Amino acid sequence: MPQDLTGDVTERQLLQSIVEVARHIYAAAASSVFMVNADIGELIFAAVSGSGEKSLVGTRFPADTGIAGWVVQSCQPVIADDVAETDQFARDAARSTGFVPRTIMAAPLIADGECIGVLEVLDRYSQAPAPGRELHDMELLGLLATQAALGLTLLRERERAERHLDRMDSLVARWSGRMPTGSVDPLAVTLLAASVDVLERQWRMP
Amino acid sequence: MDVTMPPWRQGRRSHFPGLPAWSMPAVAARSELFGISAFPHIDPDWAWAGADGDGVRIGLVDSGVDGTHELVAPIAHSWQVSEDDSGQPRVEECDPVDSAGHGTACAGIIRDLAPRAEVSSIRVLTDGKFGSGAALIAGLEHAIDYGFDVINLSLSTTRPQFRLHLSHLADRAYFRRCVLVVSAHNLPVESYPWTFSSVISVASHDEADAMTYHYNPSPPVDFHARGARVPVPRPGGGLVRSTGNSFAAPHITGICALILSKHPWLTPFQLKSVLYHCAANVRR
Questions:
Q1: N or C, fewer C-beta in 10 Å, chain A?
Q2: Distance between alpha carbon B56 and the CA centroid of its chain, in Å?
Q3: What residues form DSSP beta bridges with B89?
Q4: What number of CA atoms fall less than 13 Å from residue A104's CA on the CB side?
Q5: For strand A42-50 and strand A60-62, is the pairing parallel, antiparallel, or unpaired?
Q6: Do A31 and A49 form a contact (C-beta atoms < 8 A)?
Q7: B269 or A157: which carries more pLDDT confidence?
Q8: Where are the domains of chain B?
Q9: Is the ipTM of this complex over 0.90?
Q10: Which stretches in chain A have pLDDT values below 70?
Q11: How far is it, in rounded angstroms, from Cα A140 to Cα A121?
């Protein structure tokens, strides 16, 4: 199990499930997923299934290098086959999985029109090569990545709603805590009445 | 004439249920029948027989190009989009290097088809900090100002606020006779400029011949070109086989370079018409 504890457990479970499914669908040697941190321009290695160094989960890479960098910028899936050990693509993949692949397939996870992550499948059909299926393989990975992104989006919306609720609960509790201490500042009462008025007006409006 | 609804009137198919039908998945071209009214005498022989791209200047807006690769060199000019002190994108000259390996692959495809075309690189790949849409527009605007005959673009943006600026750029390019060849998006994302009528948009087929391409009668993608198992140069030397719509567009760019080297005064609408006439499924 990954030792990185920086992410929410539920999101980590979803990400792990994503790479497990991708690896099994393609009978691949490994599958990994990177999440984009747009604020600092980095990709964060988030989960791996198959031949991979789980201790590397949580490491970071620049978001403009290698196949993953291209996928982030273009929001397009891509396949590179016959990758050699000296290849930049292979080195990039090796940094996250610990082994050098011969084929790399990568697709973007897209939410709100932005790339929020990259899903990679390494050495697909590792037991029985299947040339001639590239366009189909890529389309299927695109479907998987789309579904994964929808799942992540739902999770994040739920987390945002929970944080918002927590903040509101906290505000209400602090306000209520002032009530028994005698007279309350009339301005505070006026502001509270105004905010209640605004909320009720919003509910009444079509 | 067939009275059933023609492909250009059928509306865009939804490839991903529940999501916008803007995508053009990279699948083999469907063998739809459609009516054709052809000009006489326009065929591959007229269009590009004996041509090698000489005299045609191509701008590659991408991740940069490895100028040392033997299958790609020489690169005539090389620029990159960086960020100035106020956080705005700025175009500056740079060494021909490729951070992602993609631009080198595209340059190799173009060079293979049109060996004597002049190829330049405009690197617009950013680390995401100051916005890839802004960088794309800055790089594309520079390429259009510079006046390349053909500009290859495998990138797009989804931001509505960039759409207007991009459509102005696409119109400007069209009127200046800078032909924009853009790879289509194959995921359910509405993005630009590949969806504009003023560009030549390209998706993939999986046939092996580099010079074979098909006209697509269902908008918005114009043509399907080779995009599967394409042998391409990679940074540092050697070849790798790659698959994706972004490798189909350079095939059309290379073919445009061949046509323009033989018929340099073609307008963009004439050039698209020549491409149409020489498409494998139109010539049948």
A1: C
A2: 15
A3: B83
A4: 30
A5: antiparallel
A6: yes
A7: B269
A8: 53-283
A9: no
A10: 1-9, 52-53, 85-97, 180-182, 203-206
A11: 12
pLDDT digits 0-9 by tens, B106-165: 999 999 999 999 999 999 987 655 567 889 999 999 999 999 999 999 888 888 889 999
Q: Which residues of B touch A35 (CB under 8 A)?
A: none
User: Mutate which of A87, A89, A138 to test chain B, going by most B C-beta atoms within 10 A?
Assistant: A138
Written as six digits, the tokens of A200 are 């009720």
A15 in any annotated domain? yes
pTM score, whole prediction: 0.86
Total beta-carbon pairs less than 8 A apart between chain A and chain B: 147
Question: Do B206 and A135 make contact, defined as CB atoms within 8 angstroms?
Answer: yes
Which residue in this structure is represented by tokens 């999440």?
Answer: A35
Cis before B7 (ω within 30): no
CA distance A92 to chain B (A): 10
Residue B8 carries which DSSP code?
G
End-to-end CA distance of chain B: 17
Please tell me which of the candidates A38, A69, A88 has its beta carbon nearest to residue B235: A88
- Closest by alpha carbon to B106, among B126, B125, B87, B121? B121
Taking only the tens place, the pLDDT of each residue in B156-191 is 888 888 999 999 999 999 999 999 999 998 776 778
In one letter, which amino acid is B173? A
Q: Concatenated DSSP letters for B91-135?
A: EEE----BSSSHHHHHHHHHHHHSTTSEEEEEE----SSS-HHHH
Provide the CATH number for the domain around residue A145: 3.30.450.40
CATH superfamily name and code, B53-283? Peptidase S8/S53 domain (3.40.50.200)
Residues 135-194 of B with CB under 8 A from A: 154-156, 158-159, 183, 185-191
Query: In this complex, do B16 and A41 lie within 8 Å of one another by their Cβ atoms?
Result: no
Q: Which of A41, A80, A110 sits opposite B189 (nearest CB)?
A: A110
In a domain, A42, yes or no: yes
- Are B100 and A82 in contact (CB < 8 Å)? no
- Interface with chain B: mutation pick from A64, A100, A143, highest number of B CBs within 10 Å: A64
Residue of B nearest to A86 (CA): B236
Does a structural domain hold residue A177?
no
Q: How many CB atoms lie within 10 A of CB B176?
A: 13
Shortest Cα distance, chain A CAs vs residue B225, angstroms: 13
Q: What is the count of structural domains for chain A? A: 1
Euclidean distance between CA atoms B84 and B82, whole angstroms? 7
* Position A190 in a domain: no
Range of the domain at A124: 9-158
- Answer yes or no: do B229 and A66 touch at CB < 8 A: no
By DSSP bridging, strand B239-243 and strand A78-81 are: antiparallel
